[in-house]
Write a structure and sequence with these properties.
It is built from 16 helices and 21 strands. The chain is an alpha+beta fold and 513 residues long. The chain has two domains: 219 residues, Endonuclease Chain A (Endonuclease, Chain A), CATH 3.30.870.10; 206 residues, Endonuclease Chain A (Endonuclease, Chain A, 2-Layer Sandwich), CATH 3.30.870. Strands 1, 12, 13, 14, 15, 16, 18, 19, 20 and 21 form a ten-stranded mixed beta sheet that branches. Strands 2-9-7-6-3-4-5-10-11 form a nine-stranded mixed beta sheet, sandwiched between helices. Strands 8-17 form a two-stranded parallel sheet. It is globular. 43% of the residues are buried.
């Protein structure tokens, strides 16, 4: 009980800043989403470079293969690295690849950069840090491990809040795994559950150097304002860098904002110049960009039919691009458009709920049933979190029913024996279309934490290619096949009983999970 009282200084949430949408959608097919490039870089690629994965085992095997074949860079950002045998195998793959790079005749160019959260990665005696220290000790010139510490956990609060509970204040939540020019975007962490029976989403962007460069620079920027893990398991900031919890908070956040926005804006400028050159050369009847691409690939670069937009959300640093884009997508979705939205933790922000209930599109929202919630069966207070989600779900469903929106807004619960559910994202089907032309995939859960507390990143994938659209449609169908539609009878089941104390506490703590 006392653990909850320690959170008292933060129980009154800050007033969210409502940001006006940057612009309205244009009317022409997939091109209607090009307004996003006013905020972030736009990467045009061929749909043949996009591969949608479907299961944890496939994700794990791909990670191992990509690590083993990497020649220039391995960049991995995650909440944490687990401590089991499967995670050790990943570390062994990294060690093997680094060893090969040292033994190569030419000078070793391979660099490994790992970004994790400080509080989650330091939990317990055996943790992410102890898993990675052998790599730092053996390859000090090639390996960098950065541990992000939220600037909001400081002073007396940092001293009082115990381990695990300190993770409620703010986290590094981005999940990006890149190997040379191949990038995996996912919501999955580097832990055995996510490699075996914890359902998530995963997409591989192959041979995409500009996208890989962007996420390398983004991880480097966050790494620069993070604590650096040393070979003796101590941590220290880079020389001259403001400390996240010992230094001035405003100064630290301004520096972090500047570093991240430099990455976004410089990439955006590069892509605009690239786009202008491509357009100009195509007008001349020859493509300079294609010629440059052919030097590396041995062939002509195909015309892009798919566009990737990285969406970054770091409210502690004053960056809220993902929030702006998501709100605009929900606001501008037309009548008879369909939005399939999924989250492992159904705890939408008030702004997102208002938009879903007040706009015209049809919504199919997939969420975890209590049994597949990641906190199901947890010890202590955490064991009550699935019941809190049931309470939040019931409140939202009651509002849907009160507004007579049951046909337009439908809740579905994912249920699968022996599995947990962690998938998050969105698929957008334009009016009259049976296939999605846009998907959001990455780390955000569409909840208060994702918008206000944590560091998040996802990508909007917009495509005109029907084969890729069918692949995304199959991904959506596979997930929704394991679900049942929520109805009033759902909440009459014995496992949906919510204790009175949970109902009383949930409104106070819902912004922390």
């Amino acid at each position: 009980r006392s653990s909850w009282l320690l959170l008292a200084p933060l129980l009154t949430p800050p007033v969210p800043v409502i940001t006006a949408p940057p612009c309205s959608l244009c009317p022409e097919g997939a091109h209607r989403f090009q307004w996003i490039r006013n905020l972030v870089p736009e990467f045009g690629i061929s749909s043949s470079h996009v591969k949608v994965l479907s299961c944890p085992a496939e994700f794990y095997e791909l990670l191992k293969v990509q690590i083993k074949t990497a020649k220039q860079r391995v960049v991995m950002a995650s909440l944490y690295l687990g401590t089991g045998l499967l995670e050790q195998e990943l570390v062994d793959c990294l060690e093997e690849t680094l060893e090969k790079s040292l033994q190569a005749k030419e000078s070793s160019n391979l660099r490994v950069s790992i970004l994790l959260d400080y509080t989650r990665g330091s939990r317990g005696r055996k943790n992410s840090r102890t898993m990675l220290i052998p790599l730092l000790q053996r390859f000090p010139e090639q390996v960098r491990v950065s541990l992000f510490h939220t600037p909001n956990l400081r002073g007396l609060l940092r001293l009082l809040i115990p381990e695990r509970f300190n993770e409620t204040i703010g986290l590094q939540h981005i999940k990006v795994y890149l190997f040379d020019d191949n990038v995996i975007l996912s919501g999955a962490n580097l832990s055995d559950l996510y490699f075996t029976n914890r359902q998530d989403r995963y997409v591989l962007l192959q041979d995409s150097p500009e996208i890989a460069d962007f996420f390398t620079e983004l991880v480097d920027a966050i790494g620069d304002v993070s604590l650096q893990l040393q070979r003796d398991d101590t941590v220290q900031m880079m020389e001259g860098m403001e400390h996240p919890y010992q230094g001035d908070k405003t100064t630290y956040c301004e520096i972090a904002n500047r570093r991240v926005m430099e990455v976004i804006n410089s990439a955006r400028t590069r892509q605009e110049l690239l786009h202008a050159k491509t357009f100009h050369s195509s007008q001349q009847g020859s493509s300079l960009i294609s010629q440059q691409g052919s030097q590396a690939s041995g062939g002509l670069k195909p015309e892009p039919d798919t566009w990737i937009y990285p969406l970054i959300q770091m409210k502690p640093f004053g960056i809220q691009i993902d929030e702006m884009v998501t709100e605009t997508l929900l606001t501008e979705a037309e009548r008879d458009a369909r939005i399939y939205l999924t989250t492992g933790y159904f705890n939408l922000t008030q702004a997102y709920m208002d938009l879903i209930l007040g706009t015209r599109a049809e919504y199919r929202i997939l969420l975890a049933s209590p049994e597949v919630n990641g906190f199901f069966g947890a010890k202590g207070v955490a064991g009550a979190i699935p019941a809190a989600y049931v309470y939040i779900e019931r409140q939202f469903y009651s509002e849907v029913c009160y507004l007579h929106q049951q046909e337009r807004v439908q809740l579905q619960e994912y249920s699968r024996a022996g599995w947990t559910f962690h998938a998050k994202g969105l698929w957008l089907y334009l009016a009259g279309s049976d296939l999605p032309c846009l998907t959001l995939i990455g780390s955000p859960n569409f909840g208060y934490r994702s918008v206000h507390r944590d560091l998040e990143a996802q990508v909007a994938i917009v495509t005109e290619n029907q084969a890729l659209q069918r692949e995304l449609h199959r991904e959506q169908e596979q997930l929704y096949l394991c679900s049942g539609v929520v109805s009033p009878s759902t909440f009459e089941q014995p496992n949906r009983y919510v204790k009175l104390w949970v109902k009383l506490v949930t409104p106070l703590i819902k912004n922390f999970f």
